[in-house]
Design goal:
The protein is mostly helical and 343 residues long. The protein has one domain: Orthogonal Bundle (Farnesyl Diphosphate Synthase), CATH 1.10.600.10. The protein has a two-stranded antiparallel ribbon.
Length: 343
């Protein structure tokens, strides 16, 4: 790192970047939700933490606004003002909300951000409808941005659905034997399910900011690598994270028998710990014992190394194209913050 690069990056605070971008995007996001049917709009507002069931005002926990920030920074990295990326930020945030509504139904998750999930609060049918409405609104938000923007979002949506399909199918496959889920399959799933929308956020912001095709492609690639790293860190936190920080019970993912990367990496390793883990998971697994075996078999170490590799690959993609220095520094700061959180 050069002295100049250090000077540019030193003052950057990722939480401040997230707050700044959310403040820029929030009015347009609220305006978009306000165009929805009142019933689906209320469910959308509830999912964002803006209201209670029935529409009463609330100040509830919301998301970090990661995708919003990536879209704004993508535009700024291309040399455009952040507001140029706001339509992209709104579109990807609406798609993200749509995916969470449907994911909670498919996974049977009853809570989201320490509140009842939309399907628990309003019913399964209404939650599906609200998700559909958010999806339609997202596409409509980009309609005026031109066919390239719609095409980019469409590709990301197709990948997101592909990743979700693979994730659901993984649950049906055995823990051991030739048909077990391999770490490489999981990485592909994570890129599609999580990375596609992060890549789209960056790429759409850059596209709307007037970036050349090579820059748009590089930022899409950086976001996809970030998505894999982000998902892998979530996997680690889902087993060993602090419940007061993650909002999940201790060993939550093991209790739910999720096939996450630490588990799959441990099962793919040689040695007796992997064999004992496979036998344990085929039965009524004790989560604490399983966590110990995963660590002994190297699953935690392998997962963190995988997150590091994808973070490095994302930073390399950013370095391969010319970016406005401050926006580039903020992007790198944000990538590191999201991947290293609470570990």
């Amino acid at each position: 790192m050069t002295a100049l690069d250090s000077a540019v990056r030193a003052p950057v605070s990722a939480p401040e970047v997230l707050r700044r971008c959310q403040e820029l995007v929030r009015p347009a996001l609220r305006e978009a939700v306000g165009r929805m049917h009142p019933w689906t709009g209320e469910m959308a507002a509830y999912s964002f933490g803006w209201c209670e069931v029935g529409g009463g005002p609330a100040v509830a926990p919301g998301g970090k606004g990661v995708r919003q920030a990536l879209a704004v920074l993508g535009a700024e990295a291309a040399g455009a003002p952040g507001r140029s990326g706001v339509p992209a930020a709104v579109a990807v945030e609406l798609v993200h909300a749509f995916s969470l509504l449907h994911d909670d139904i498919m996974d049977g998750d009853t809570t989201r951000r320490r509140r009842p999930a939309v399907w628990k609060a309003y019913g399964t049918g209404p939650a599906v409808l609200a998700g559909d409405a958010l999806f339609a609104l997202a596409v409509g938000t980009l309609a005026g941005a031109g066919p390239d923007a719609v095409r980019l979002l469409s590709t990301a949506l197709g990948d997101l659905v592909r990743g979700q399909a693979d994730d659901l199918l993984f649950a049906e496959r055995p823990w051991s034997g030739p048909d077990r889920v391999r770490p490489a399959e999981y990485r592909a799933m994570a890129e599609h399910k999580t990375g596609s929308l992060l890549g789209a956020a960056l790429a759409l912001g850059a596209l709307l900011g007037g970036a050349p095709p090579a820059t748009v492609t590089a930022l899409d690639r950086a976001g996809r690598h970030l998505g894999v790293a982000f998902q892998v860190v979530d996997d680690v936190l889902g087993i060993w994270g602090d419940p007061t920080v993650t909002g999940k019970p201790v060993l939550a993912d093991l209790r739910e028998r999720k096939k996450t990367l630490p588990v799959l990496s441990a099962l793919d390793s040689p040695g007796p710990a992997a064999r004992r883990l496979a036998a344990l998971l085929e039965s009524a697994a004790d989560p604490a014992e399983a966590a110990g075996l995963i660590a002994v078999a190297g699953g935690r170490t392998a997962a963190l190394a995988e997150a590091r590799r994808h973070l490095d690959a994302g930073e390399a993609a950013l370095a391969a194209v010319p970016l406005v220095p401050r926006a580039g520094a903020e992007l790198r700061s944000l990538l590191g913050f999201l991947v290293r959180r609470d570990l």
